[in-house]
């Protein structure tokens, strides 16, 4: 098992000496391609939830906190809108931010603030009125046909200057109110950027920029998907992909200017979120089927080149199909891009993905719309807006909650893995160091399911896929397993291959708030003779195996 490298240990030591003065700044650290977000100087797994879009007002917060509590979340993601902090140009009002931060502290949760500025789901709806309706000063993009788009141009210099000024004011204010406590641990810059309906800005400013050579930083990172020139204009290098890639660069560049200026004032980690392009469809030039210019998987390299002050491009998961989720996670988790899922649907079908996402070593995850404001997210998410919506996530988060630090450290050390039941309901397996694990679903706890089982023969509560398990290999032969609705078999692999094996211990228990293991019982006999059967309720096991 890998040890923490010197530079990560040094970073941990530095932040702990700083802690004597003020809480250390949250920061992202990397170790052999695995990541952790350090909060208070220690790895922190974000068990997040995101509030509704319109809950960013003091009087709306009680319904948010109630859902946060039921969800056992340790982090709330919530918008701060440009329109609310700068309703009149140059006059800032941080009343909401002050209330939010104070109440988050009282509720014992951290905050991830979502800057709804120039773009919110690509549109300008969250800009102040003095921006929204001033097309001259804050130009919209033009389509190929010369018609104005709804979307503000990333090449509008005054738009950038005004957004940057507001964002910097926000970051300056956060520094003033939160430097000592670091309740705010990350900031999202803009929200689901890009443009629907036109691939890029065809106004004269867009045409002129499009004819410029591709910047060297982009050339160094983004290889053309089809043969093209090694350097030159966007068209020469990227052929049919040039329009989309140019727009991605323009948007990323704009975001970079905002993030860089904000971080110069208060250096919080930052990310952008993405309305996905279909991860299973063969790569093809933009044909109107996703928001051009957003940080889709195919342009992460362009974002990395153009926006070094953005730490992460994160996928928003709103397609619940398991093959699509798996493909998206594969594409967004990269040695240069920590896995972080800033949004996913709040329907029960998504809950099992928490195991897969945290098992893969993500720094965090957040279902969207975990908020008791009376607004249903169906069909994108849950039908109901009550405790039944929160419960599938809350029970899983409750199991992880005391481990938020420890899990983050294990993830940084590359010791974790995760499984989520597929839509095909088929068994899955994975190999950890010297041990394999297979998982099957829809099994009773005792004995095997007959081959000719009919729907009514399956265990209750398994009509839809909801099984999953996350593993942390905490020693050569020892695992922490958190899971539900799954049967597990462990087998000797790697250096153990060919040996026989037995369980030494299969302890069921809990972690106390200090992260100490409290055993309830040791599973043996019937409880392990038919595999390790994790029930409907998320259950924590500490398993020790021996190969002999
Ligand atoms: C993704 C966006 O980023 C959110 O702000 C919200 O609009 C959801 N879609 C819709 O539920």
TrEMBL record:
<keyword id="KW-0732">Signal</keyword>
<feature type="domain" description="Glycoside hydrolase family 42 N-terminal">
    <location>
        <begin position="67"/>
        <end position="212"/>
    </location>
</feature>
<dbReference type="InterPro" id="IPR040719">
    <property type="entry name" value="DUF5597"/>
</dbReference>
<keyword id="KW-0326">Glycosidase</keyword>
<protein>
    <submittedName>
        <fullName>Beta-galactosidase</fullName>
    </submittedName>
</protein>
<keyword id="KW-0378">Hydrolase</keyword>
<dbReference type="GO" id="GO:0004565">
    <property type="term" value="F:beta-galactosidase activity"/>
</dbReference>
<dbReference type="Pfam" id="PF18120">
    <property type="entry name" value="DUF5597"/>
</dbReference>
<dbReference type="GO" id="GO:0005975">
    <property type="term" value="P:carbohydrate metabolic process"/>
</dbReference>
<dbReference type="Pfam" id="PF02449">
    <property type="entry name" value="Glyco_hydro_42"/>
</dbReference>
<dbReference type="InterPro" id="IPR017853">
    <property type="entry name" value="GH"/>
</dbReference>
<dbReference type="GO" id="GO:0009341">
    <property type="term" value="C:beta-galactosidase complex"/>
</dbReference>
<feature type="domain" description="DUF5597">
    <location>
        <begin position="394"/>
        <end position="534"/>
    </location>
</feature>
<feature type="signal peptide">
    <location>
        <begin position="1"/>
        <end position="21"/>
    </location>
</feature>
<dbReference type="InterPro" id="IPR013529">
    <property type="entry name" value="Glyco_hydro_42_N"/>
</dbReference>
